[in-house]
Amino acid sequence: MPAARFPLPRAGADPGRRRVLAALLGAPVLAAGGLTGCSEDQTAPEETGPVELSVFWYGGAKRAELTERVLRLYTDRNPRVGFRITWQGADGYYDRLATQAAGGNVPDLIQLDDGMLTEYARREIVLDLSAYVADHRVDLRTLPPGLVRYGQVDGRTVGVAAGQTTAAVVYDRTLLRRLRLPEPSTGMSWTEYVAWARRVTRVGEGRVAGTMDPSGDHRAFWLWLRGQGGEFYRDRQLGFGADALTEWFELWRRARSGRATPSAALVEQAEGGEPTRQLVVTGATAASFAWSHQLPELQRLTDSELGVVAMPGPVEAQWHRASMYWAAFRGTRHPALVADVINFLTNNGEAGTALGHERGVSPSLAVRSFVEGSITDPAQRRATALGAALAARLGPAPSPPPQGHLRVRALLLQAAESVRGGETGPRAAAARFLARADAALAG
Fold first, then answer.
1. Which pLDDT value is given to residue 34?
2. Cβ(90)–Cβ(323) below 8 Å
3. What local confidence, expressed as pLDDT, does residue 372 receive?
4. 369-378 — which CB contacts under 8 Å span 24+ positions?
5. Domain with CATH 3.40.190.10 in the chain
6. How many angstroms separate the CA atoms of 169 and 214, rounded?
7. Paired sense of beta strands 51-58 and 81-88, if any
8. Which CATH number fits the domain 51-162+322-380, given the four candidates 3.30.70.1400, 3.30.420.270, 3.40.190.10, 3.90.700.10?
9. pLDDT confidence of residue 47
10. pTM of the shown model
């Protein structure tokens, strides 16, 4: 596999050199699987000599620090196995992976999100893990069934959740206390949420808007659809028509006219999802939309205390959702060993403790129980508590989004921006989106 080319910031380290997590010693491979303190260890696959696996993921420096720590734990148990790691921010990550895939040199273990899982599976870039799941070498028996399903494409397990997350409203609790206003709550309708946001803007005398405008956010629209019995996708096609999207755009047009949201320029600045640009962090709004597992990172960016609740609408519209997946390269020379690493990341209690909530709550219910008492960060505890409160009420998981989903997401954002900027009316924007999205999915 190619040498790592992306830096892993660490005090005193040369940021340009390869990172091998441990020396490749001559001792036999040791047990790697099993939930520490909760279940019996499994034996890792035998290898005839030292092995160096390449790993690539996206995220920030904190994720890198914790992931490196956990991979060291694996090497401690399997001294013949070392790791060459590469990581970077989300921007450009899939461009880099596409280049590697074109050259047939994808890293052994990669991180994917649900927008790319289907594409990588159908292009046969990622390994079918079904045989390892069937005999529990990758043990998914402690995962919620919906979370297991959300890693399957065409009936094959091609990704294992690296964490579970919730589409959430993150809000400025300090600001709301100062304004003497109620906090948003899980289960409020979208109409109630918009009314709450208008009240925040009014009481705050326009110095801060109530909420980010999520009209171009596919997560919010997807949940709004499911709250009405609909779906974003039906198999490989859109699951909604022009009327539904027009109604969604109209909801947020009314919200803007009632000053529930800030200016279009501020909204567009935050739409990329970059944490430092979240409007609840910059102080432009009292609430933003994010993934629940991002709460600790967002909290580090502001002096205000942040709270978190589920996105508006019925809780049953949410599902056991993977924040991201671990997947193996189909061309890896060590498929059984990569599968064992995935099993370790999923089921080992010590690994779960070290990873914390950085990628979401542990996918394994057993690991969640094992690590519960070790969580000390207040923001992480709030995010974990939200997940626990919703767990028994979540609806059935859909299939991961089809190939072309990233293009559909971009088209939805463009359509919302055209309505927000007054260039196009809601119905015309919806009709244009559907035509272009259908073409993107057909391609």
1. 44
2. no
3. 82
4. 370/35, 370/36, 370/37, 370/38, 377/296, 378/299
5. 51-162+322-380, 167-317+404-442
6. 11
7. parallel
8. 3.40.190.10
9. 65
10. 0.85
- pLDDT above 80 for 20: no
CA distance 216 to 424: 14
pLDDT at 119 over 80: yes
**Structural contact between residues 250 and 426, judged by C-beta atoms closer than 8 angstroms:** yes
Residues 6+ apart with CB under 8 A from 214: 220, 221, 252, 289
* Whether the Cβ atoms of residue 415 and residue 432 lie closer than 8 Å to each other: yes
Q: Which two tokens stand for residue 113?
A: 């999100």
- Mean pLDDT rounded to a whole number for the chain: 89
Between the alpha carbon of residue 316 and those of residues 41, 220, 333, 393, 394, the distances in Å are 36, 14, 42, 6, 5
For residue 209, CA distances in Å to 16, 242, 292 come to 43, 29, 21
Phi, psi of 307 (to 5 degrees): -110, 170
**Distance from C-alpha of 315 to C-alpha of 310, rounded to nearest angstrom:** 8
**Hey, is 231 helix, strand or coil?**
coil
| H or E segment to which residue 321 belongs | strand 321-328
- Nearest-Å Rg of the Cα atoms of the chain is 22
Q: Which of 155, 139, 265, 159 is nearest to 213 (CA)?
A: 265
CA pair distance 92, 272, nearest whole angstrom? 13
Beta strands in 89-206 (DSSP E): 109-112, 152-153, 156-157, 160-165, 167-172
What CATH superfamily is the domain 167-317+404-442? Answer: Periplasmic binding protein-like II (3.40.190.10)
Q: 234 near 201, Cβ under 8 Å?
A: no
